[in-house]
Every structure is written in structure tokens, then in C-alpha cells.
Amino acid sequence: MRIMGLDFGSKTVGVAISDPLLITAQGIEIIRRKEENKQRRTLARIEELIVEYGVEEIVLGLPKHLDASEGERAEKTREFAQRLFRRTGLPVTLQDERLTTVAANRAMDEAGLLREEKKAYVDQIAAVLILQNYLDEKRRSG
């Protein structure tokens, strides 16, 4: 069994996959689209990855404001979660993603990546952090 982690953005979706033992998350790709509302290919690619990796659950980052309130981006993410569930039939868990992009940028700074390199990887690293946080919480709660 594996779990897929997703960082859903307006034009990209960062994708991460857990190892079979549900201990670690690894980034696998960033799905890009030209327009925010064009999601058919994005969903089709996610379905391909689900089959390829034997995914049984999806964890989707839910963007919240620092005060835990939700805005327009969170609403769009909830709509995407519903589409994912309808299309795949898999459970979709929403995971608070506050500060994951900040943490991803900090990690890339520490690794010495240039600005353009960071833009290329930030969504994938954010997906890894979202999924890893979920896996860690799941392990702690037993």
C-alpha cells in the first residue's frame, strides 16, 4: 500500500508518494497545466500514477491562513478533492499545509539551489512535506 501526497496550485500539482511501509515520502513529479480550470489532463495523470504506484489513499494539502481561516484557495482545493474522489474512488484526506512552501524554500536555500531551480522544485518538495507530515501524524496516533 502507498499513499499519494499532492500540493494543488493554480497551475501546478506537486506529487509525492510514500514508501510501501508508510514511513517516508518521496517527490516524483510536478504536473503542470496552462490554465487553472483545465484539470482533465491533471486528473488523468494522477490516475496513471495511482495505478503505477498502487496508491490506496490521497493526501491533499489544504492551504489555510496563519490564523487557520480558509480563503478562496482552500475552497478550490476542496472542490479539487471532490473531483479526485469522484474520479478515483479513493479516500482523499485534507492535510493542513500551512508553512510547507516556506519550509520547502528554506530547505532549498540550505541546499544552495538557485532561484530558477527553486521554482522548478518547490511544489514537489511541498507535496513531500505535506505527505511526510501526514505519515508522521498517522504513526504518532497509532
H/E series:
EEEHEHEHH
CATH domain class? Alpha Beta
List unreliable stretches of 5+ residues.
none
Quaternary assembly: single chain
User: How widely separated are the two ends?
Assistant: 17 Å
The number of distinct helices, counting runs of at least 4 residues, comes to 4
What is the tally of beta strands? Answer: 5
The share of residues in helices is 40-55%
* Structural domains: how many: 1
Strand order of the largest sheet: 3-2-1-4-5
**DSSP strand (E) fraction?**
15-25%
Overall pLDDT metric: 90
Q: How would you describe the shape?
A: globular
CATH topology: Nucleotidyltransferase, domain 5
Radius of gyration: 14 Å
Name the CATH architecture. 2-Layer Sandwich
Superfamily at the CATH H level?
YqgF/RNase H-like domain
Protein architecture, described:
The chain is α/β, with parallel strands linked by helices. It has one domain (2-141): YqgF/RNase H-like domain (Nucleotidyltransferase, domain 5, 2-Layer Sandwich). Helices cover 49% and strands 25% of the residues. It has four helices and five strands. It has helices at residues 40-53, 72-88, 100-110, 115-141; strands at residues 2-8, 12-18, 25-32, 55-62, 92-96. It has a five-stranded mixed beta sheet with strand order 3-2-1-4-5, sandwiched between helices. Strand 2 (12-18) and strand 3 (25-32) form a beta hairpin. The chain is globular, with a radius of gyration of 14 Å.
